[in-house]
Every structure is written in structure tokens, then in C-alpha cells.
């Protein structure tokens, strides 16, 4: 005869597994043209949450999703590179953008630049930053790049620490930038690529706009 008490104790243990199967899981994939608006929304939300106090408030309040959407549509159509997104329940919640270096002292055919990693505030801490970074590095290795660089706004300590954990190091280059009428400085970090794909794990990171 079955032990009914044991059955009542064990059944609840199955509920988390059932909920996991029913809950849509986030998807890491290449961006598509129709993702432009979702990427723009994530970009604007992340800027406003992250750079308050580092850049002028007026600049942050003036950010426009429609304007950023137009820029992303042009980026997809005219600028070489690759963008990766995290999609969950049909919504773009994070993205990373990679392409040839824009720095004058770097050879764009040999050096890949990480233009941006943006993760919505409510989705940070889920390991998506590292996974986006690793996917981009694998993409860069496959295309024969020897190095990857990123520019981080001076004072953005969380992003700086993230890239250090990713194995990047400051290379001594600092680039002045004016954002919203305020003179600021970007610090460049770099990492040599061994053309071996990264393993996936967790982390998160972001960098400000370069306009």
C-alpha cells in the first residue's frame, strides 16, 4: 500500500521544475533589423539609470527612443559588425555591439571594438553581461581579430571592474569626450585574443554613449 504521507511531501518538490518548464527562458541571439526599437529602449533606460551624476541630467532627459531607433536602423544597414541581444518574452532586455575599431591608432581590420554593452537595470545580475561579452569575443576570434578594446567613462567603476574581470587591462590611452556640454574622459581597456571561444558564465557590464 503506498505511503500517502510520503507522496504528499514529495509532490511539492516537483513544482519548481514544472514552473521552470513553463516559464519562457531568455534567448541570446544575433540582433535583427526589427530589434532596433527594443535596443533603443534598452539603451535609453540604461543610460538614465547608470550615468546619473556622471553626465548632465539634461542630456539624460533629452534622450529619445525614436532618435536612437533611427540610429540603430542606420547602424544595421551601413556599419560593419555584429550586435547580440538577450530577448525574454518578446522583449529586448540587453544587448552588446561589436565592430571594427574606431580609434586612429588601431588597425580596424585587426582590432575589434566593443562599442557597448547595455543591460536594463531590472535584468542586471543575471550573468548576461559576461555571456554577451564572451559571445562577442568568439565572434571577433572567428573573424580573425587579434585584439579587442573598449572605452569606459572615467568614474564608471562598475563597468571598469567588469572589464577587468573579463581579462582586459588599461592600455594607457585616455580619450576626451564632451557629453551634454560636460568635458569628460574615456579610459581604453584592451585584451589580446587567442582565437579560442570563451566559456559561458556570469557577470554584467555597461559603457556610456560615444557621440
Salient structural properties:
7 helices, 211 residues, 28% strand, globular, alpha+beta, 7-stranded mixed sheet
Task: Write up this protein.
There is one protein chain. This protein has 211 residues and is of the alpha+beta class. Helix content is 35%, strand content 28%. The protein has a seven-stranded mixed beta sheet. Helix 3 (36-50) crosses helix 5. The longest helix is centred in the N-terminal third of the chain and has 15 residues, at 36-50.
Please outline the major beta sheet. Answer: 7 strands, mixed
Order of helices and strands: HHEHHHEEEHEHEE
Overall pLDDT: 87
- Indicate the structural class: alpha+beta
Poorly predicted spans = 197-211
- Strand fraction equals 25-35%
Assign a percent range to the helix content. Answer: 25-40%
**Order of strands across the biggest sheet?**
1-2-3-4-5-7-6
Could you give the count of β-strands?
7
Query: How many distinct helices?
Result: 7
Summarize it.
The chain has 211 residues and is an alpha+beta fold.
SSE layout:
Elements lengths: L3 H7 L4 H8 L4 E4 L5 H15 L6 H5 L3 H14 L3 E7 L2 E10 L10 E9 L8 H15 L4 E7 L3 H9 L3 E11 L2 E11 L19
Parallel strand pairs: 4-5
Antiparallel strand pairs: 1-2, 2-3, 3-4, 5-7, 6-7
Helix pairs in contact: 3-5
Amino acid at each position: 500500500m503506498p505511503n500517502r504521507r510520503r507522496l504528499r511531501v514529495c509532490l511539492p518538490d516537483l513544482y519548481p521544475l514544472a514552473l521552470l518548464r513553463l516559464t519562457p527562458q531568455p534567448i541570446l541571439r544575433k540582433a535583427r533589423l526589427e530589434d532596433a526599437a527594443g535596443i533603443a529602449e534598452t539603451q535609453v533606460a540604461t543610460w538614465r539609470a547608470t550615468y546619473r551624476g556622471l553626465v548632465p541630467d539634461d542630456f539624460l532627459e533629452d534622450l529619445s527612443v525614436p532618435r536612437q531607433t533611427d540610429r540603430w536602423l542606420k547602424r544595421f544597414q551601413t556599419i560593419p559588425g555584429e550586435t547580440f541581444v538577450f530577448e525574454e518574452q518578446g522583449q529586448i532586455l540587453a544587448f552588446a555591439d561589436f565592430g571594427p575599431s574606431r580609434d586612429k591608432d588601431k588597425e580596424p581590420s585587426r582590432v575589434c571594438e566593443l562599442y557597448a554593452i547595455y543591460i536594463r537595470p531590472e535584468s542586471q545580475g543575471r550573468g548576461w553581461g559576461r555571456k554577451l561579452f564572451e559571445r562577442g569575443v568568439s565572434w571577433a576570434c572567428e573573424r580573425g581579430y587579434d585584439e579587442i578594446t573598449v572605452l569606459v567613462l572615467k568614474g564608471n567603476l562598475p563597468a571598469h571592474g567588469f572589464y577587468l574581470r573579463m581579462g582586459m587591462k588599461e592600455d594607457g590611452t585616455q580619450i576626451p569626450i564632451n557629453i551634454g556640454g560636460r568635458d569628460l574622459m574615456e579610459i581604453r581597456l584592451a585584451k589580446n585574443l587567442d582565437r579560442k571561444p570563451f566559456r559561458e558564465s556570469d557577470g554584467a557590464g555597461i559603457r556610456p554613449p560615444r557621440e
